[in-house]
Structure formats: C-alpha cells, structure tokens
Amino acid sequence: MCRSIKTLRPPALPEEATEDDIRAAALQYVRKVSGFRAPAAHNREVFERAVDEIADATARLLDGLEVRGAHHAHPVHPAPSVVRRQAREPQPDAV
What we know:
Elements: H1 19-34, H2 44-64, H3 80-88
Helix pairs in contact: 1-2
C-alpha cells in the first residue's frame, strides 16, 4: 500500500524496531489514508491521535508476534559481481 513503510519484524530488521521506526510507519500510513502530508490546523488533533493509536497497535502487534526461525542465521550469498571478481583474483598456492 505505502512503499515508504518498511517491514519492522525480524529478520527484515536486524534489530528490534525502535519507537521511532514504529511512529514513522504509523505516520506514513495515516498520511496515505488521509491524503494529507501535513494536516490543516483544524485536523491536526485527529491526525495526531490516529498516528498515536496506530503506533500503539503496531507496537502491540510486534510484541505479540512469534517469528519462528528468526534465531537461525540465513546464509549470505555474495553478489554475482563479487563472485566474478574472486574468480579472477589469483589464488594462493596450496601447501
């Protein structure tokens, strides 16, 4: 829906999402749904309340999720350009 909102749970984030991460995602969501980047003065209170409520709901969601397999290290595959460069480099003689 909103490309600016990033996934906030492991393993997408290497560490736990911060309060700032959660609030930024909530703000992006409210901006997208309301159609306002910054609300007019007469809408500011309801806009900010929506951001707070969505941030709270997001924090509860993240706290309640059970991410299975998050403790397993995922293999890191080098980029194709790295593989090609390593193949071109001279290899030390094996003893």
